[in-house]
Specification:
Blueprint: H1 2-12, H2 17-27, H3 33-41, H4 45-61, H5 65-89, H6 106-122, H7 131-149, H8 154-174
Length: 194
Amino acid sequence: MLFALITWQVLVSGPLLAPDAALSRVLVRTVPDGVTQRLSDLGNIPVAVPVLLLAAVYAARRGNRRGAAAAALAMVLVPALVVPLKEWTGRPGPLEPWASGYYPSGHTATAYVAYVGAALLVRPYVRGRWPLPLAAALTALTAAGLILRGYHWPLDVLASLLMCTPLLLGVRAAGPGRARPGPAASVPPGQPPK
């Protein structure tokens, strides 16, 4: 619902765009461009997609072929969703009002699906809970770099996160199941499990 609301506001130049522009004006170029450019680059296809591919190969070799396939499909769907939306909305950029196609952020979508998708694939096979926080940090750094550099409005980034969350829920659902209790044969007939 929030994604639909933001998209509608972008299409009709609604009132939600005023605080978005104000926030962007406050944030853009507050960090040196060299730093924000490197952060933005975390969402480049040659940087993010290989991370997901390596995780998919690893998961498939460990027996999670469904999860690996779901993650690959999620990444394929990113441009299939982003490109038509960019063309449809035609939103100009914060520093390039003459250009269009900034909504939603393709770099944010790529980073989010690649890093979180990779974390979901490797998490069952590694010690600790570090994959998801690391993936969230890489995605947040990408998003911050895009906003601070002036490549995207904050709503462009938020919309990408909202749009891609169902894709990642699909990756999670396709992964290995949780541990289940032992076989029912160990419970005497007529007795409820303890």
